[in-house]
Amino acid sequence: MNLIPLHSETLVSALSKEEVLGQLNRVTKEVNYLDRRTQNSRGILFNGIIGQKGFRISKVVDKGDTFLPLILGKVEETPRGSILFLSYRLFPGAIFFLAFWSLLLIGFGLFYSFGVINYFNASICFALALFNYGLALFFFNRQLKSSQKEFHQLINFQMKD
Length: 161
Fold this sequence. Notes:
The protein starts with 5 loop residues before the first strand and ends in a 5-residue tail after the last helix. Strands 1-6-5-4-3-2 form a six-stranded mixed beta sheet. It has three helices and six strands. It is α+β, with helices and mostly antiparallel strands. It is 45% helix and 24% strand. Helix 2 (92-115) runs antiparallel to helix 3. It has one domain (6-93, 132-156): Alpha-D-Glucose-1,6-Bisphosphate, Chain A, domain 4 (2-Layer Sandwich). It is elongated and about 65 Å long.
């Protein structure tokens, strides 16, 4: 388990760069969350954008999940296939709220430790900050495993034309 909500990995695929990006493009859709018609497409595994050199995707989920990883990928061509450089991280909004609540609770803990001198309240604030961060790591790592599994299955499929 990572101590920060960030994970990176490198995958080697027998598929060419074009095949990898094409395969991703077939199961990825750019979704407009304000238009219901773009949300329920069969066969779509990921939401996001596929470019010529890389991609920025996340797994499709039925309901919102704050700790769903954003997958940033770059594909490099090799003589016998391709290499994928992947980075899994929290969405920027989730990072903001995790940092906000952690820093706020630590700030209150410091206030109670040095300002008002109430060690019981300070320890509660520090414990809540640790619990908040630990819970975020737990849920991120759980979603990370799920996203990795789906992505690895997709890349290991053979092209069928």
